[in-house]
Amino acid sequence: MLAQGEQQLHDLLAGVKLPAATRLGTGTLTALTAAQRQAYLSDLAGLTRLRRESEANPLVALLVDAAVAHIKADLEVVESAERRLAGLAEQAPGVMLVESEHGQVG
Length: 106
Prior knowledge:
Blueprint: H1 4-22, H2 26-53, H3 58-90
């Protein structure tokens, strides 16, 4: 799970990468949204483990619930972006980005 500053940077880069990916074609947009989706799902899995481990602490449970809600909203934005930007990506020439060994597309 990312620290708050890292999460803000991560969100900012995702907000920049998605529109930029439309200029590189459908494959790039698909690869980028898939990588972003996987990162968010990984964060959700970590939060689920944390929730189970800290059931007895209501403050931690509240914070985890807030983080889960935030990540679910981020997932919805990724899904929406993929749907809404697909038409723009189809008009692009199509350059495929590759995924790094760390699971990042770039």
